[in-house]
UniProtKB/TrEMBL annotation:
<feature type="domain" description="TFIIB-type">
    <location>
        <begin position="2"/>
        <end position="34"/>
    </location>
</feature>
<dbReference type="GO" id="GO:0008270">
    <property type="term" value="F:zinc ion binding"/>
</dbReference>
<keyword id="KW-0805">Transcription regulation</keyword>
<dbReference type="GO" id="GO:0070897">
    <property type="term" value="P:transcription preinitiation complex assembly"/>
</dbReference>
<dbReference type="InterPro" id="IPR013763">
    <property type="entry name" value="Cyclin-like_dom"/>
</dbReference>
<keyword id="KW-0677">Repeat</keyword>
<dbReference type="GO" id="GO:0005634">
    <property type="term" value="C:nucleus"/>
</dbReference>
<keyword id="KW-0479">Metal-binding</keyword>
<keyword id="KW-0804">Transcription</keyword>
<comment type="similarity">
    <text>Belongs to the TFIIB family.</text>
</comment>
<keyword id="KW-0863">Zinc-finger</keyword>
<keyword id="KW-0862">Zinc</keyword>
<dbReference type="InterPro" id="IPR036915">
    <property type="entry name" value="Cyclin-like_sf"/>
</dbReference>
<dbReference type="InterPro" id="IPR000812">
    <property type="entry name" value="TFIIB"/>
</dbReference>
<dbReference type="GO" id="GO:0097550">
    <property type="term" value="C:transcription preinitiation complex"/>
</dbReference>
<dbReference type="InterPro" id="IPR023486">
    <property type="entry name" value="TFIIB_CS"/>
</dbReference>
<protein>
    <submittedName>
        <fullName>Transcription factor IIB 2</fullName>
    </submittedName>
</protein>
């Protein structure tokens, strides 16, 4: 498709040809860029019993496209504003906020999430940005500041964005995130340190489970070795936002490596081998 500099858009834009009127138009705003493109151009075009002026039709089209552009800009502005409000509510850095806005802008241009609400798209973009930059927030936390958007909706929208855009896949959670989750489950500093070290060791093993599942299973194992009241599996599942079945399956895969994963300074081999199945 040919391109030209559009005086209204102030950018190099693709053009389209109105073969009936003989004009070349900006594909973005509908502005007439070239008049009388062909040698023979009709002064008017007949439509049934009515005769319409092509230039008038183009002007109407241009006006319509202009209104569409204004609507799109307003929606983008609203999305950016929602991202800022959510980021402030979670105490996130400007780096994360800016990255979320970048992702939102790409989604807006590519129309990746047609039919989804601005709030769900903004929340999903912020969720992805957190994952990329390493200041992870759970779906529960994002949903709490997302103007009523459910965790399920945010997750589905994030998956739709990931399929279309070049964004990082979910990564193994950073230390700060692990500490926050463990604290919610009542783990002390020594146990939290054991979980963090176990997660690092697990990265070098052939464990074919998602990072979140691996982390959930490791937390379960460390809790079983704690000198404190045990935490129910359902509570671990709730905090980790996984199912109890997921923890059971992940434990089965990881338990064969338990003595290599759990730090020696935290528990002996005999105790590790006695960890019960969830």
């Amino acid at each position: 498709m040919p391109t030209q500099i559009c005086s209204r858009c102030q950018t190099d834009t693709e053009t389209v040809v109105d073969h009936k009127a003989g004009h070349e138009l900006c594909s973005r705003c509908g502005l007439v860029l070239v008049i009388n493109l062909f040698d023979e151009i009709p002064d008017s075009v007949e439509y049934g019993d009515e005769t319409k002026n092509p230039v008038s039709e183009i002007e109407n089209c241009s006006s319509f496209n202009s209104n569409d552009q204004k609507t799109a800009k307003n929606q983008s502005k609203k999305g950016f504003e929602q991202i800022k409000v959510m980021a402030d509510g979670l105490g996130l850095t400007k780096e994360i906020q800016d990255r979320a806005c970048d992702i939102y802008g790409e989604v807006d241009i590519m129309k990746t999430c047609r039919g989804r609400s601005i709030s769900s798209i903004a929340a999903a973009c912020l969720f992805i940005a957190c994952k990329e930059i390493g200041s992870s927030r759970t779906l529960n936390e994002i949903s709490a500041v997302a103007d009523g958007v459910s965790k399920k909706n945010i997750n589905r929208t994030a998956e739709a964005i990931k399929k279309q855009l070049e964004v990082e896949s979910w990564i193994l959670q950073p230390g700060e995130f692990i500490r926050r989750l463990c604290s919610k489950l009542g783990l002390k500093n020594r146990a939290i340190k054991a979980v963090q070290e176990a997660v690092e060791r697990a990265q070098h093993l052939d464990i074919r489970r998602s990072p979140k599942s691996v982390l959930a299973a490791i937390i379960y194992m460390v809790i079983q070795l704690c000198q404190q009241d045990p935490v129910p599996v359902k509570d671990i599942a709730m905090v980790m936002e996984v199912t109890e079945v997921t923890i059971k399956k992940s434990f089965k895969d990881i338990s064969v490596y338990a003595t290599r994963v759990i730090p020696e300074w935290y528990a002996g081999e005999e105790d590790i081998n006695k960890i019960p199945s969830p």
